[in-house]
Amino acid sequence: xxxxxxxxxxxxxxxxxxxxxxxxxxxxxxxxxxxxxxxxxxxxxxxxxxxxxxxxxxxxxxxxxxxxxxxxxxxxxxxxxxxxxxxxxxxxxxxxxxxxxxxxxxxxxxxxxxxxxxxxxxxxxxxxxxxxxxxxxxxxxxx
Length: 143
Hints:
Alpha-Beta Plaits; alpha+beta; 32% helix
């Protein structure tokens, strides 16, 4: 049996995210697993002249994406190297972890549907073997 990969949000997941009615900032936790060799089969026009790794393709995606993220008021608050869990499935590992903060669900949606931003998504698709995206809202403990 082949393990399911997650690269894009489903329509149902998008609807559930929107219906959470998150007020205020939303922080996106990204868990990323890179392909050893980037696969530009779906977007050959974006392919570099020479073969590159998934990690390098993701760097191209981030370089392309940052101006659109900043323009929308979003910010990259953490980008670091992943690895195996201390607590979690032993066989599961993530190559990189990102935390991206958006002012609101609305500004995230504007960013995520920006036609110019979407032109660079082929780098992300070429780069990733698997991913997770967890929207988080800031809440303090209350007593």
